[in-house]
Design goal:
This protein has a domain at 21-102: Rossmann fold. It has two helices and six strands, in the order E-H-E-H-E-E-E-E. The chain has helices at residues 35-42, 56-69; strands at 23-26, 48-53, 72-76, 79-84, 87-92, 96-102. The strands form two sheets. The protein has a four-stranded mixed β-sheet with strand order 1-2-6-3, covered by helices on one side. It is elongated and about 60 Å long. Mean pLDDT is 87; it is low at 113-123.
Length: 123
């Protein structure tokens, strides 16, 4: 069974002094200067970066990164059953845009490694 070490904290500072991670998840704060670059740079070759965004500004940043580095963009929508008068109806939650990308395995290449996500742009 593979070992899993979860490190929580503000990125990219939480990564300082650690071995290069296999994966980094960013759940918010995408527009903070240096956040995505710091997380990307910290990953080992073939490491995976997954980022969530819910604002237009954050989504724009993910769209620009996707255009430059590839990977996959996915919009996730969830609805919950809630009272609607005397009946029950679906109430939508805020949609989440997810960008997932893998760092190239070969040093010196700018091309990301396909991550195997269905529908992902394999570059």
């Amino acid at each position: 069974m593979p070992a899993l070490r979860v490190v929580t904290g503000p990125a990219p500072d939480a990564l300082a002094g650690l071995p290069a991670p296999d994966a980094v998840f960013v759940g918010g704060g995408v527009t903070a200067p240096g956040l995505l670059d710091g997380c990307w740079d910290a990953l080992r070759p073939a490491g995976r970066l997954v980022v969530h965004a819910v604002t237009l500004e954050s989504e724009r940043e993910l769209t620009l990164r996707h255009a430059a580095l590839g990977g996959s963009l996915t919009r996730i929508s969830v609805e919950h059953a809630e009272p609607l008068g005397s009946l029950t109806g679906w109430a939508p939650s805020r949609a989440v845009t997810q960008w997932a990308v893998t760092v190239p395995e070969a040093a010196g290449t700018d091309e990301p490694v396909p991550s195997g996500t269905p529908g992902e742009d394999a570059r």
